[in-house]
Amino acid sequence: MSVSNPASPAPASGAAHPASPAPAPGAAHPASPAPASGAAHPASPAPASRAAHPASPRAGELLGIPLALAAYDEVLDWIDAAVAAGSREYVCVAATHTVMACREDPELRAAVLGASMTVPDGQPLAWGLRALGHEIGGRVYGPELMDRACARAARTGTRMYLYGGRNEGTLVQLTLNLRRRHPGLRIVGGQAPPFRPLSEAELEQVADEIDRSDADVVWVGIGVPKQEKWMAAMRGRLRAPVLVGVGAAFDFHAGLVPQAPPWMQQAGLEWAYRLGREPRRLWRRYLRYNPRFVAGFARQYAVHRLAGRRTDRPQG
């Protein structure tokens, strides 16, 4: 089930993603209460035991989820700082689906709120943050973040580990594609986990293999909500400083699924492109969550505008 140094195609196992293990005690960070609508979150001072950990970028709250107000380079600099400090962090990459699913899944919400940073992957999230008065240049798209991180790692020597993929053959193709695109990239191992839940012995084996690889960053591509729950549960078991959940980025970079054209991404229509490509898998997700996001954001925006009017009203 593992690819410690994938270089030649392995036989497909037919495996895909595991059901998420229950969080180990102390593995997930405690969920913090959601801030006031539209409020920006300054980086909180770290407690003494985490003094060496890099401060996360400022965040803005959108539908109860704090989203980093950071550009790609700022996120990459933060990852480098976490690796240099040897801290233990995990990063969520949130689309509108993730934000809305957090309202229905308490375990997912706890995992996202417990992350060191959650970046806005979806274009509508970046638009929403800007409408609420936050300064943000644009979204931090998971596949692009992964690609830029690999380009930087090829220069710096940061060691990467890949956890996810539809099967071993996909994982091997992903590794080959990334190495061709970024000569010198150090991918020190990978695993394509099965659909079924892993036993405790298997979880220990997963943790041991990742630790033995001496990876600096573990890229997790097993989809929402599994990857967020997996990172929260496994964070305390792994020595790798940074875990990053990037979902469909594995399929995109392996060449299994094409990405939407840039103009569709910029117009916030990536969901429509993906729906056209994978209707049977995605229609329920978009039918369920897209209208709920629009309605939920409309309510938050109305509260934000009303609060602004009250603040601007002359006192007398």
Core attributes:
single chain, 316 residues, 45% helix
Structure description:
This protein is of the alpha/beta class. Helices cover 45% and strands 14% of the residues. It contains twelve helices and ten strands. The chain has helices at residues 72-85, 96-101, 106-113, 123-131, 142-156, 168-181, 200-213, 226-234, 249-254, 262-266, 270-277, 279-312; strands at residues 2-3, 40-41, 59-62, 65-68, 89-94, 117-120, 159-164, 186-191, 217-221, 242-245. The chain has a seven-stranded mixed sheet, sandwiched between helices. A three-stranded antiparallel sheet has the order 2-3-4. Helix 3 (106-113) packs across helix 8 (226-234) and helix 11 runs antiparallel to helix 12. The chain is globular. The relative contact order is 0.18.
Summarize this entry quickly.
The protein has helices at 72-85, 96-101, 106-113, 123-131, 142-156, 168-181, 200-213, 226-234, 249-254, 262-266, 270-277, 279-312, and strands at 2-3, 40-41, 59-62, 65-68, 89-94, 117-120, 159-164, 186-191, 217-221, 242-245. It has one domain (2-13, 58-308).
Beta fraction: 5-15%
Low-confidence stretches: 6-51
What percent of residues adopt helix (DSSP H or I)? 40-55%
Assembly level: single chain
Question: Would you spell out the secondary-structure blueprint of this structure?
Answer:
Elements: E1 2-3, E2 40-41, E3 59-62, E4 65-68, H1 72-85, E5 89-94, H2 96-101, H3 106-113, E6 117-120, H4 123-131, H5 142-156, E7 159-164, H6 168-181, E8 186-191, H7 200-213, E9 217-221, H8 226-234, E10 242-245, H9 249-254, H10 262-266, H11 270-277, H12 279-312
Parallel strand pairs: 5-6, 5-10, 7-8, 7-9, 9-10
Antiparallel strand pairs: 1-8, 2-3, 3-4
Helix pairs in contact: 3-8, 11-12
